[in-house]
Amino acid sequence: MSALRKNLGFAQGLALYLAAVLGTGILVIPLLAWREGGPASLIAWAILGILGLALAWTFATAGAEFPDAGGIQTMIERVFGRTAGMLSRWLIFFSVPAGAVAAAHILADHLVAAFPLPGEYSFWIAWVSWMAVTVANYLGIRVSANVQLALSGLLVLVLSIFVIVGLPSVRLDHFSPFAPFGIIGIGRSAVLIFWSFLGWEAIAHLAEEFRDPRRDMLRSAVTAGVIVGFFYMAVAFVLIGVGVFSNEGGASAPLVALAGSFAGRPGRILTGVIAAVICLGTMNAYTAGVSRLGYAMARDGDLPKGLGHLDARTATPKNSVLFLFFLISAALLIQRFFHVPMRLFFLIPNVAFLFLYTLGCLSVARLLRGRPLAVTAAYFSTAVCALMVPFASGVLFYPLLIVSAALFYTAVVKRSVRRFRS
User: Fold this and answer.
1) Which of 197-209 are b and which e, b meaning 16 or more Cβ less than 10 Å from the residue's Cβ?
2) How far is CA 213 from CA 63, 89, 377, in A?
3) What is the pTM of this model?
4) Which run of H or of E encompasses 305?
């Protein structure tokens, strides 16, 4: 079997981290969090910014010490055993397609609002966007990483301009009342904001492809953690302070509407295209990371062996990339034909990753006993993630469904296949 190639350095790692985390959340989560907690949602942004840096440090250190395409799930298996590792892999691999629906529809809604287009185009734009991302990853990680570097640089530039231009228009009266829904509102906004900090574990699946994981992976993760925390807090502060949400709170793409009010049609189009680029960057990073997870699961027997095949020329898991696209397409169809509320497609990956991060960070804390800073970050992350789980009680049925399917596959399907082959 071919080995994964070591193509990634600091710049590519930083780009992939930024795209995985500083992505779709910047477009819609500040609005959703403001609706739940008002201006006090800034407190939740600050707390989760600290959590994000701790998660970055935790997962990058673990990935550098134990580079494996299985990522943080491999850490869970080392500490809690084979079954726990297998269940965590299934939970994430089969929850990401739900988040993919949300990401694709954010992209589609911004393009529909920018040009503008009929609303029925949204599904097809969403599906085609995932097709494009799949093709890019099918060509190999080197192509994806180089594209990611350019996208991430553009994103940081655009956000910098937005913050600098918006700060003079901030008005203190937009922060009053500060906490209209009290502590409960801050907690609810924190659960939604958690979507914005998903992704710190995704690049851990690519640890085997870093030329120097101990140096480049940790440096890129910590740098990305600082950048992400700053921009999320700054952008949320500016959006609240200039009254964007008060004026455009009902719009599916409030930033596009705001840009149009100041710069007309060119402003709408430019903002919509930039938003689409941001979404594509996140989608690309997740496809790269999660397809490697599928490869590792197949390699270890948690999924059919065919998904563990690496292309001889590009050394990429093409079958896993295609299977992930199939799952995402199915999720998009379910949302379209059964009219499932989009809110669930945000919350399903949130609760899955809360479980993963809680168990994963606890595993890392036990494995990295000689690294006090990493252990402290891991225990802090474990506590914060565990405290947030109850706020996602409305979608706890989904992890139970996935765990049941995983146990059924292990106990029945794999055993039947072995019996048939023998």
Assistant:
1) bbbbbbbbbbbbb
2) 7, 22, 19
3) 0.81
4) none
